[in-house]
Each structure stands twice: as C-alpha cells, then as structure tokens.
Design goal:
It comes from Aplanochytrium stocchinoi. Helices cover 48% and strands 10% of the residues. It is α/β, with parallel strands linked by helices and 269 residues long.
Length: 269
Amino acid sequence: MGDTLETNISDKNFADEVIPTLKPEHVAALEEFRKLASGKSCKEIEQKIGSFTLSDATLLRFLQQRLFNVEKAEKLLDKHLDWRDKYMPSTLTVSDIEAPLKSGIVRRAGLSKERTPIVFIDVENFHPKKLYSDHDDFVKLCAFFFEYNIRLLQPGVYHGVIIFDLKGYSYKEHGNKLSLFLVQILIQIVQEQYPQRMRKIYITNAPYLFNMLWNIIKVWMEKDLKEKIVIVKNMETLKELIDEDVLEERFGGRRSEPYPIDGVDIPLE
C-alpha cells in the first residue's frame, strides 16, 4: 500500500507540473482522453495490485508519446492495458526472472546527479539462446525493472536513465536473429509500455560493428527515442551524469565494486 501511495503522489506531482504548461488544444485533448479512459481498466487496477492507475499522469504520458493525438493515444493505451493483463508486471518477483537476473545482464546503478535511477545493462552477459528461448522471460525481466524503478522514484523525479555497456559485444552472439528480436522487444517496451519514462540512454564501449547494428535498430525507434540516445565517446560524459563515487572505475569513477544484483546480491528495497 505504501508503494502505491508514494507512486500516486509522484504521478500527481508530475501532472501538477505538466498540466499548467499545456497549450489550450492539449488541455482539450487531455479532457477528451479522460472521458475515453473512464471506462477502461485492467486486472491490476480491478484487483488493486501495484501502483498503476489511469491517472492524469498516465494519460499525459500516452498523449505525449502520440503528440496529443487522442485517437492514437487511445489505441496505444488499449494495447498497454492488454499487455498488463498478459504479464501482470506489478506481480512479478525475483523468482519469475531468477535465471536472467543471476546472469548479471541488468543491475541498478544508483542515482544520477539529478536523482534519476540508473539501470546498467552489461551486454557481455547477454546470452539470448541460453536464457531467452522464450521471449516472454525477457519481457518479464524488462517489466520487472521498469516497475521496480518507478516504485523507487524520489519526489520530483519522473524519468530514468539506462547505460548500455557494449564491451564484449559479439556479432555472432548479439547480431543474430533472436538477439535483434529481443532488442526490438526492448525498444517496444520503452516506447509503448512505459512511454516518456526515459531521460537518456547512454551507450558505452561501442565497437566498430555497432554502426551496422545501429542502422538496423534505429528503424524501430520513434524520433523521440532516437533523440535520447547518447553514444559515449569519452567517459567524461558519464562523469557529468553520475558522481564519481557512484560510477564504477571502468567508466572513470571511483567505485571499485561492481553494481550488485537486486534480489541476488542484495535484498529488494
């Protein structure tokens, strides 16, 4: 219950900040969307599980993702509600994603200087054929971390940051059909299931082959997401984002220990 209350307060703060800045036509779009959403629901809402609600903040994010086109935003929201009914992301636990979690592919890496939560993705530990023959397991892993980070957002913080470390990237391991399919799923989750939740996505240690990969995956990205991608060519870029005490030594910081795995190395908060 506490998690739900805190997240709803965060959503209310987000809406209170955004609504006064809207143009009149965007206010009208929000009012129309409220009416359309009033008859919608999903299992988590009906069973009072987790913190997801059809609040103004939720509606605003879907409207923003579709440039305040109400018809397109409604279609996106309907698809999201079906997705939530299928995966029930608020109910996911460590036991649901134990194998991929233990692989160390994804970890929380503390907070940025702006207090945004950082998710660190270690591509070297990404072994699709071994861990994700059923792509639903990958979806659950992504959903688990989105839900977890949203729950831990501090007051006045509404977005997160992802750092992809491509050290260890292998075209054979990561450029195959299954790997690219999972990357496409991740992009879809960022854009369609958790719209407007990303501040920036940083890509470090990108090999020469990444240019080939980028030409493929950027086709799946909407303009808004493309503009949030930062290819890190100098680790000083990360120091501008993260305090050196939080940043690992391999990225130019002072942290000597690797980021722990939530639910494995440390208990969930």
